[in-house]
Amino acid sequence: MGRWKTMTPAQRAKHHIRCQRYRRKHPDRLRAARKEYERKNAKKLQAYRRRYYLCHRAYLRDLQRLRRDGITPEQTKAAMNQQKGCCALCYRPLGKETPCSDHDHVTGKFRGMIHRKCNSGLGQFNDDPKLLKLAVQYLEKHNVRSR
Q1: Residue 48 pLDDT > 80
Q2: Whole-prediction pTM value?
Q3: Cα(22)–Cα(29) distance, rounded to whole angstroms?
């Protein structure tokens, strides 16, 4: 049984305050100790992080979309249902690949779920309709057929 479990609530509170003071007073010592631990246990920590990522991949992806784009998992599921599992840009099935959440970079408004390649293509043209029209004209001029 650890020392923490044998403490009364008042003792725990005092201990907590002492730890907070120590952390504020000695951040360099704590940082150095953490770096040393990470150096000694690099492979173990890497394996742990990898296992954690593999077990929580969907949750982490949803959390990233929420933080970065403000898109909730419910919005993602609704868009996927509305799009019937197809890309909002090219209308081909999304398949097993993880779709990207497309949004307007000026307004931040969510537009839909698209393939990674479709997302990269839009990004290369800076989401500019004029540039995309010029690209279409270029392809038509050189007789490039759609697949």
Answers
A1: yes
A2: 0.63
A3: 10
